[in-house]
Amino acid sequence: MTPSEVFSIVGMLAMPMWILLIFLPKWKVTRFFIDYKIIPITLSFIYAIYIIKALLIGGMMDFGSLKSVMALFTEENAVLAGWVHYLAFDLLVGMWIINQNKELKIHPIIIAPCLFGTFMLGPVGFLLFMIMRTIKLKKAQS
């Protein structure tokens, strides 16, 4: 299987989970996937394979400077591993947001931009959720 094919497959794994998180966060199927972390575990397995491949081809990875990181991301397997890393961790953050919101009880329509932001821009969606979470917790204390 080529890295391009794997790239397409991991996208097809992550996208439906994001749709479930954003549009059907309380559905039992969504809860099942959140509780058992099936997609992030699958992505982590794929990540491990490609990071090992990248190590075997290019040796130890140097994250010591921007230039060395840029050089690392010229290797197809390393780029694919990096992409799968983003997919897995952003999805875990999205699942964490849904779990946190079980207690906060912020309306899913208000949480949707946080999830979409996490899906598209990772830390930006997380930051937005943390701001909403802080506001909600402060209101609950007063």
From TrEMBL:
This is DUF4281 domain-containing protein. The lineage of its organism: Bacteria, Pseudomonadati, Bacteroidota, Flavobacteriia, Flavobacteriales. Keywords: Membrane, Transmembrane, Transmembrane helix. The keyword Coiled coil does not apply. The chain crosses the membrane at residues 6-24, 36-58, 78-98, 110-132. InterPro entries: ABA4-like (IPR025461).
